[in-house]
Amino acid sequence: MSLRRASKIMSLRRATKDNVIARSVKNNVIARSEATKQSLIRKDCLDDEAIKAFRAEAKVGILATINPDGFPHLTLITSIQAKDQKTLIWGQFSEGLSKENIRHNPKTAFLVLTNDRCFWRGKARWTHEMKEGEDYEKLNMMPMFRYNAYFGIHTVHYMDIVEAGARERVPLGKILTGVLLTAAGKPGAKTGNQAKILRPWAEKLFNRMDSIKFISWIGPGGFPLITPVIQSRAADSRRIVFSPAAFGGELKAIPEGIKAAIFCMSMQTESVLVRGVFNGYKRFRGIRLGALDIDWVYNSMPPKQGQIFPEASLEPVVKF
């Protein structure tokens, strides 16, 4: 055998081996990708891991409802629990728009975030409420409510799960990238309108490193959707902007021109809810950011919930 021919045979063998390795790597990647997709497949019930996680008292529970105008509304519901695989319950200790909304439209979405930075989310349909019974007693015996006369639960709400996802992890690396990109681009996203909407403390809350945020809009089928948007920041008192570096697939799917709501909170129970028109993605200082122009602001926390902007006119009390 000539040296030239032997060299060709060796080259062919190496190429064949490389192709086999490449196909093996590709198949492994596809398999991992499919496994990831399977783990996030939506079901109509909670798994055992979620039921256990929902029992934690130190967690963030977010409920999305739909107001009579068809716009999304977000509120903090820390008492949310899984009664079983198909049913969620939560306790009401104060009045607010979310409780009015579910009686008008029972379609809701939920998200539960635990201290280990894992979260679960899905859709549910409100069915009824109870002011007594086993679940009423159970929720009122929770340490958070048991020794606090003001925060005692007076109503238990029930929801049937329509769709539930498996455990997800907060992508800290992508969020950090999103925070840096948003911070770099937001000075160019200012509206230029000097008329204030957000109060200074609320604007600062949006821009704090320890605040967490969630965005909601109405998706297909008429149910609200919830996506973490921790990287969002206030460009000024009239606009919230965010990079799609984290949860990009979901955030890029928000239809331009739709009404959306963003709930912002800190671990010190400070919170604010804003709503406005999502104006899609534009480049600010060369960085692509989504922009929500605020037209409504609401305080959802006791002792006094209420609309902050536009300022609501005072109505006289006529019933005592």
Structural summary, described in words:
This protein has 320 residues and is an alpha+beta fold. The protein has 2 domains: 121 residues, Roll (Pnp Oxidase, Chain A); 139 residues, Pnp Oxidase, Chain A (Roll). Strand 14 and strand 15 form a beta hairpin.
Q: What's the CATH topology label of the largest domain?
A: Pnp Oxidase, Chain A
Helix and strand composition category: alpha+beta
List how many beta strands DSSP finds: 16
Q: Examine the secondary-structure arrangement and name the CATH architecture of the largest domain.
A: Roll
* Low-confidence blocks of residues: 24-39
Mean pLDDT value: 87
Going by CATH, the homologous superfamily of the largest domain would be: Electron Transport, Fmn-binding Protein, Chain A
Describe the main β-sheet briefly. 8 strands, antiparallel
Brief synopsis:
The chain has 320 residues and is of the alpha+beta class. It has helices at 3-39, 48-54, 97-104, 134-140, 143-146, 172-185, 200-207, 248-251; strands at residues 59-66, 72-76, 81-84, 87-92, 107-114, 118-130, 155-164, 168-169, 212-218, 224-228, 233-236, 239-242, 259-265, 271-284, 287-299, 306-309.
Give a topology summary.
Layout: H1 3-39, H2 48-54, E1 59-66, E2 72-76, E3 81-84, E4 87-92, H3 97-104, E5 107-114, E6 118-130, H4 134-140, H5 143-146, E7 155-164, E8 168-169, H6 172-185, H7 200-207, E9 212-218, E10 224-228, E11 233-236, E12 239-242, H8 248-251, E13 259-265, E14 271-284, E15 287-299, E16 306-309
Antiparallel strand pairs: 1-2, 1-5, 3-4, 4-7, 5-6, 6-7, 6-8, 9-10, 9-13, 11-12, 12-15, 13-14, 14-15, 15-16
